[in-house]
Amino acid sequence: MKSRLAPLFACLLAASCAGPGSSTSNNGRPDEWGHRPGPQGFDTVIIDAGHGGKDPGAVSRATGQKEKDLALDTAKRLQRQLGGRVKTRLMRSDDRFIELDDRASRASGKGGTILVSLHYNSSSSGIRGPETYYWRVDSHGLATRFQRAMAAVSPAESGNRGLVRRRLRLTRNPDIPCVLLELGYLSNAAEAKLCADPAYRDKMAAAIARAILDQQAKGDAGTGPLPRPINAPPSRPTDPAGS
Ligand SMILES: [Zn+2]
After folding, report:
1. d(CA 149, CA 203)
2. Global model pTM greater than 0.70
3. Ligand 1 center to residue 42 CA distance, Å?
4. What is the pLDDT, as a whole number, of residue 213?
5. Which of 10, 103, 131, 231 could be joined to 3 by an S-S link, Cβ 3.0–4.6 Å?
6. Domain 52-218 adopts which CATH fold?
7. Kind of pairing between the strands at 178-185 and 131-134
8. Ligand 1: distance of its center to the CA of 12 in Å?
9. 21 pLDDT more than 90
C-alpha cells in the first residue's frame, strides 16, 4: 500500500497485522505466546484477504489493479483449492473494511484453527518475489512451507527476504498459528502483470493449499529447527517500523 514510510514496509505496516507453551505439537489450540511446535491435524483454516473497502492496499501502476481485489480473489481461489479437505472460513467475502485488531480478535480463541492472511506488496519498482511473514514459534513450520510453495511458482524471489520473522498485528496478536503472505510486488511491472493473470493466482492458491495440507498431515516435519522464543508485547498501530 502507498505510504510515506519506507516503501518496503509500507504494505506490512498497513497490515501490522498473540508465555511459553508445551513442547508437543499444538493442534492449533489457542495459546497467547505460541512458544511451541507448529500445528498438526488442525481442522479449520481462516483465510484473511488483506485490506478491503476504504483501504485498497497497494495499487499497481502497470495494471491498475488493487491489492484488496487481488487478495479477495486469491482467498476465494485458496478456499476452492482446499476443496473441503479442511474447513475454511473467509475473514471477508466481499469488498469491506475490517480493522486489523478485529481480524486478530476474530481469529483468536478458536481450537484446531490456523490463520493465513493474503497480501500483495509494494516497494521500489526493481523488487519482486513472494515473501512470508511470521512471528510465533508455532507458525514457523507453516511459514516455511508457504514460502517454499510460493517460491516454486514464482519466477523470482526477493533476495534473502523470502521468510521474515516480524511482529505484526496478524503475526503476533492472534492466539493461534498465523502467517501473513505477500504473494508478489504490484510495484514491479512484470510481477504486477503476472499477478493480474487469474491462472497465475490459481497456481499460487494451489501451492498455498498444498502447504496447508502438508502441515496438517506432517506438522513441522521437514521444515527445519524451530526459531527461538521471543517474549514481546502484542503489536500496536503505534509501533515503529519493522519492530
Ligand atoms: Zn497488504
Report:
1. 10
2. yes
3. 26
4. 98
5. 10
6. Aminopeptidase (3.40.630)
7. antiparallel
8. 6
9. no
Q: Distance between CA atoms of 213 and 84, rounded to whole angstroms?
A: 11
DSSP 8-state class, residue 226: P
Instruction: Dump pLDDT digits (tens) for 156-181.
Output: 877 656 999 999 999 999 999 999 99
Question: Which pLDDT belongs to residue 29?
Answer: 81
Residue 50 Cα to ligand 1 middle (Å): 5
A 10 A CB-CB count for 155 gives: 11
If you write DSSP's letter for every residue of 28-89 in order, what string do you get? T---SS-BSPPP-S--EEEEEE--BTTB---B-TTT--BHHHHHHHHHHHHHHHHTTSSEEE
Q: How far is the CA of 39 from the centre of ligand 1 (A)?
A: 25
Q: Is residue 207 a contact partner of residue 149, using CB atoms and an 8 Å limit?
A: yes
Q: Which residue has the higher pLDDT, 237 or 208?
A: 208
- The set of residues, in sequence order, having a beta carbon less than 8 Å from that of 180 and lying 6+ positions away, is 12, 15, 17, 116, 117, 119, 132, 133, 134, 168, 170, 171
Region 17-43: what's the mean pLDDT?
A: 74
DSSP secondary structure letter of residue 20: B
Name the strands in the sheet holding 131-134, side by side, starting at the edge strand that comes first in the sequence.
Answer: 87-90, 44-49, 113-121, 178-185, 131-134, 163-165
Q: What is the phi-psi region of residue 45: left when phi exceeds 0, alpha when psi lies from -120 to 50, beta otherwise?
A: beta
Closest CA to 182 of 56, 89, 57, 96: 57
> Amino acid identity, residue 41?
G
